[in-house]
Amino acid sequence: MATQEKVVWDGNTAAAQAMRQAKIDVVAAYPITPSTPIVQRYSQFVADGEVKGEFVMVESEHSAMSACVGAAAAGGRVATATSSQGYALMIEVLYQASGMRLPIVMNVVNRALAAPLNIHGDHSDMYLGRDAGWINLCAFSPQEAYDLNFVAFKTAEDLRVRLPVAVNQDGFITSHTTELVFCMDDESAYGFIGDYKPHNPMLDTERPVTYGAQTEGEWHYEHKMRHNHAIVESQKVIEENFADFAKLSGRQYKVVESYKADDADEIIIAIGSVFGTTQIAVDNLRKAGRKVGVVGVRLWRPFPKKELAAALKSAKTIAVLDRSAPLGTTGALYGETAAVIVENGLKATLINYIYGLGGRDATTEHLEAIFNDAQECSKAGKRVKPIMQTVNLRGKPLSFYQ
């Protein structure tokens, strides 16, 4: 077990400290709110001589990820951080990084996408990169923003995986809120990840290799399906690393987190910091004799289908919360959950809520109202609410797909 110190950190500080302890060779970044403090603090570590790696300040996020690709292909341990429009500007290169199987770690402090311009948090950027071939871990608190960085490096660099990993946290709610965090001593933290072992580095001139070669009809399909196989199978490695991390830190993570859902008639599913707020709503309603629970998705890609189905087995009605505007359909997490219900023969009624866009609050009162909607569906034995509704929206109420 690692020696641990109690500190008060926000999510950005926690991520920056984890990067310091990981002894990264190259961090290339361009600042953008609300992830700026991560790279700002890391650059200070470099300036103060606390880390020996390189910090490369570039002219855009596209250049930042391009520099990360080059450094990772050359054979270094590499990381960066970004948000929102910066993430959007990286998109082309995110596919390059994952297609080349480069184990880059990126902290993504989730923020809304313009227009209209908004610097506050929602999951639009995380959803944008859903199909970019990266493993996506989701932190619900500053402690988790710290811990999941170590799991990210260890998973990305595992030769069974060799894929980039994003560690998502909610902009401002997690990134700028200070909480008690248990920080491991440097030796134990680094020991969990271990020394970086380059695999086919471009700087090994005795064994020349190429990255990003062109493949047309003969081999493109095979590359993409091998990539898909690797990311699906990475869940086993992630769960191994969660187990090993628990032995080191005493903190056990699961790909699907569950709170009082084992016997729940109504369950809310969500990603991010709202998982904690929903736990309070669950406790309030449990005191009134209601059988309710909440399930949090920790692993966005690969999507943990089997584990989510197991967590929902008791539910009569499931309310899925999406923190991104779907713009033409239902929410992405709703769609994933609907597929899990069909694939596993579950009989629960399913409803969808869009919440928290651009940093809009979702309070315990809002969440208890969602549980009340779900209870109405359970009592009727069918859906009696619109398929998709909004939470805390100003003006005339809006709902979709009656």
Task: Give a written overview of the molecule.
40% of the residues lie in helices and 19% in strands. The protein contains 12 helices and 16 strands. The strands form 3 sheets. The protein has a 7-stranded mixed beta sheet with strand order 3-2-4-5-7-6-12, sandwiched between helices. A 7-stranded mixed beta sheet has the order 9-11-10-13-14-15-16, sandwiched between helices. Helix 1 (11-21) runs parallel beside helix 6 (142-156) and helix 3 (61-74) packs parallel to helix 4 (84-99). The relative contact order is 0.11.
List the helices and strands and how they pair.
Blueprint: E1 4-9, H1 11-21, E2 26-29, H2 36-47, E3 54-57, H3 61-74, E4 78-82, H4 84-99, E5 105-110, H5 124-128, E6 135-138, H6 142-156, E7 165-170, E8 179-184, H7 186-193, H8 220-249, E9 256-259, E10 266-270, H9 274-287, E11 292-297, E12 299-301, H10 305-311, E13 317-322, H11 332-343, E14 349-354, H12 364-380, E15 388-390, E16 399-400
Parallel strand pairs: 2-3, 2-4, 4-5, 5-7, 6-7, 10-11, 10-13, 13-14, 14-15
Antiparallel strand pairs: 1-8, 6-12, 9-11, 15-16
Helix pairs in contact: 1-2, 1-6, 3-4, 6-7, 6-8, 9-12, 10-11
